[in-house]
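From the shared-data thread, chain only:
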Amino acid sequence: MSNEIVCPVDRTMNLINKKWSIQIIRDLFFGKKHFKEFKEGKDISNKVLSSCLTDLEENGIIEKKVLNTKPVSTEYSLTEYGKSMNRIIYELAMFTLNDEKDRVYSDKTKEQMKKDFKQTLEIDD
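Structure, as tokens:
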């Protein structure tokens, strides 16, 4: 065992280090998802998605539930530990939504998105 002190930012980044991890976590704040739903609107292979989901599950951020349906399906949701990332996801969104120079969204859209993220992520001021 090393006596080296590890930065907590590094430790957090190691938990969510795969390319699609943050997007998967964000999507799960908006509700439980099935495997194929994660792929909607994303250019992600089954192999990469499966690896990412497994990694997040092993790190205790998400949980997988195999449903007794025909055909069998799998549902993913955030654990309480995963839900504690709400402030991180919120601040990532606010980083660009609060940028005065950003013109990707109209001011009206930005305000609605801020409201939606705040409500969905259960952010209290």
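Strands lie at 33-34, 62-67, 73-78.
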